[in-house]
C-alpha cells in the first residue's frame, strides 16, 4: 500500500536516484523530474532491476515553471517534494557563479511557485554542510550542530543558504495565510537536510555515481584513479591544522543518506514541525589521506596522489553532530566507511563505463535470484 506520492527533482542523479529507490522500496509512488544534465535515464532501469518498480519520469528542467506545472497537473496525487536538482561542485561554483545562482536559487524558487499553485505543502530540501562554512571560527562547534552560525565560504554554499531562507519564508507565509483564512495551516512544512560527504554505491554493483566529465568529489576521483582513467589524485592542501595536514570530512554511505530523506519526510507528515533543519552525517571525521588509505586497501594497492594548493572556499573540518537527527528522526548511519569503499570499488571496477554499458550479467542474475 503506497503511503503517498513524492516528486523527486534531480531524481536520476546520484543521491536522487538512491532516494527514489528507497522511497519505492518503502511503499511510496515516485515521480522524477530531471534535465539529465549530469545523469542518465538508464538509472530508471537499474532502480527497476533492484526493486521491481519503476518511477514515472519527465525530462524537465527545474527552472521551467510551465514544465513543472504540467507534471503537477498530470499527477494531482503528489503531496510532497524532495528537491535535489542543483549544480553541486564547490570549486566550479566560484568559476561560474551566475549559473549556480540561476539553477540553484532560480530553480528552487520556480519549484516552490509551482508547488504553491498545485497546493503541494511539503518539501524536503537537499541542503549541505557547506552552509556552515568554517565552523572552527566559533568555539565548541566541531562536530557541527544545527545551532552553528551559518557562514558559507563559497558560492555553492551561499546558494544553499538562500534556498533554505526562501523555503523558511514560504512555509511561514503559507501557514500565516491559512491561519487567517481559518484553514489547516499545519500541512505546510519544510525539512532542511544539511549533509556532509555522500559516498558509496549499491551493494548489488549495478547502481552508483556516474558523473559526466571530471568528478569533483574525492571518492569518485579515487575510483577513476583506481581504474586508470586518471593518472593520479590531486590533494588540495596538506597544511591544514589536522593530524596529517589534510582536510577533515564526514563521509556517509549513500544508502544511509537516502534513508535519512525518508525519515525526514515521515517526520514532516507525522509531526508537522513547520521548517526544521537536520544534519545528516556519521559524526566521524576522516582526513583526505585516511580516505586514500582506506580506498587503496579495498583496491589492493596504493593509489598515486599529488598535493597541490588549497581550493578557494575549502575549510578545515566538516564533521556532523547528528544528535538531532538521531533523536527526532530516529535515524542514524548503519554502514561504515569500509562498506562505502567496498561498494564503490565493486561499482567502478565492474562498470568502467558507468551507465553507458550493460551491468555485469552475474550481478543481474544475483539480484534475480535474491528476489525468488
UniProtKB/TrEMBL annotation:
Family matches, as InterPro entries: Epimerase_deHydtase, NAD(P)-bd_dom_sf, UDP_G4E
Any one Gene Ontology cellular component term annotated for this protein: cytosol
Protein EC: 5.1.3.2
Key words, A-Z: Carbohydrate metabolism, Galactose metabolism, Isomerase, NAD
GO biological process: galactose metabolic process
GO MF term list: UDP-glucose 4-epimerase activity
Cofactor(s) named in the record: NAD(+)
One Pfam family per UniProt: Epimerase
Family affiliation: In the N-terminal section; belongs to the NAD(P)-dependent epimerase/dehydratase family. In the C-terminal section; belongs to the aldose epimerase family.
Function: Mutarotase converts alpha-aldose to the beta-anomer. It is active on D-glucose, L-arabinose, D-xylose, D-galactose, maltose and lactose.
PANTHER family the UniProt entry points to: UDP-GLUCOSE 4-EPIMERASE (PTHR43725:SF47)
Subunit comment: Homodimer.
Protein's recorded name: UDP-glucose 4-epimerase
Gene source species: Lasiosphaeria miniovina
Amino acid at each position: 500500500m503506497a503511503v503517498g506520492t513524492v516528486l523527486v527533482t534531480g531524481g536520476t542523479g546520484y543521491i536522487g536516484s538512491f532516494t527514489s529507490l528507497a522511497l519505492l522500496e518503502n511503499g511510496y509512488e515516485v515521480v522524477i523530474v530531471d534535465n539529465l544534465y549530469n545523469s542518465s535515464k538508464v538509472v530508471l532501469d537499474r532502480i527497476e532491476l533492484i526493486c521491481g518498480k519503476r518511477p514515472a519520469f519527465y525530462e524537465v528542467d527545474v527552472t521551467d515553471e510551465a514544465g513543472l506545472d504540467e507534471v503537477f497537473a498530470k499527477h494531482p496525487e503528489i503531496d510532497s517534494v524532495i528537491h535535489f536538482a542543483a549544480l553541486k561542485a564547490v570549486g566550479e561554483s566560484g568559476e561560474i557563479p551566475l549559473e549556480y545562482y540561476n539553477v540553484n536559487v532560480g530553480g528552487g524558487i520556480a519549484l516552490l511557485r509551482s508547488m504553491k499553485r498545485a497546493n503541494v505543502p511539503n518539501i524536503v530540501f537537499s541542503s549541505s554542510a557547506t552552509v556552515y562554512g568554517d565552523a572552527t571560527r566559533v568555539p565548541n562547534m566541531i562536530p557541527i550542530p544545527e545551532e552553528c552560525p551559518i557562514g558559507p565560504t563559497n558560492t555553492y554554499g551561499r546558494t544553499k543558504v538562500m534556498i533554505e531562507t526562501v523555503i523558511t519564508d514560504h512555509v511561514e507565509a503559507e501557514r500565516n495565510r491559512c491561519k487567517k483564512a481559518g484553514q489547516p495551516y499545519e500541512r505546510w512544512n519544510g525539512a532542511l537536510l544539511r549533509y556532509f560527504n555522500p559516498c558509496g554505491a549499491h551493494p548489488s554493483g549495478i547502481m552508483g555515481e556516474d558523473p559526466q566529465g571530471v568528478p569533483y568529489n574525492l571518492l569518485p576521483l579515487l575510483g577513476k584513479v583506481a581504474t586508470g582513467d586518471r593518472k593520479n589524485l590531486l590533494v588540495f592542501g596538506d597544511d591544514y591544522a589536522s593530524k596529517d595536514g589534510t582536510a577533515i570530512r564526514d563521509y556517509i554511505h549513500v544508502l544511509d543518506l537516502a534513508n535519512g530523506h525518508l525519515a525526514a519526510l515521515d517526520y514532516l507528515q507525522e509531526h508537522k514541525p513547520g521548517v526544521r533543519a537536520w544534519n545528516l552525517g556519521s559524526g566521524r571525521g576522516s582526513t583526505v589521506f585516511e580516505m586514500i588509505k582506506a580506498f587503496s586497501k579495498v583496491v589492493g594497492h596504493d593509489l598515486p596522489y599529488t598535493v597541490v594548493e588549497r581550493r578557494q572556499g575549502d575549510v578545515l573540518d566538516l564533521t556532523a553532530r547528528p544528535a538531532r537527527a538521531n533523536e527526532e528522526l530516529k535515524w542514524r548511519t548503519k554502514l561504515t566507511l569500509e562498506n562505502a569503499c567496498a561498494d564503490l570499488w565493486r561499482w567502478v571496477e565492474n562498470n568502467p563505463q558507468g551507465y553507458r554499458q550493460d551491468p555485469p550479467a552475474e550481478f543481474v542474475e544475483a539480484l534475480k535470484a535474491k528476489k525468488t
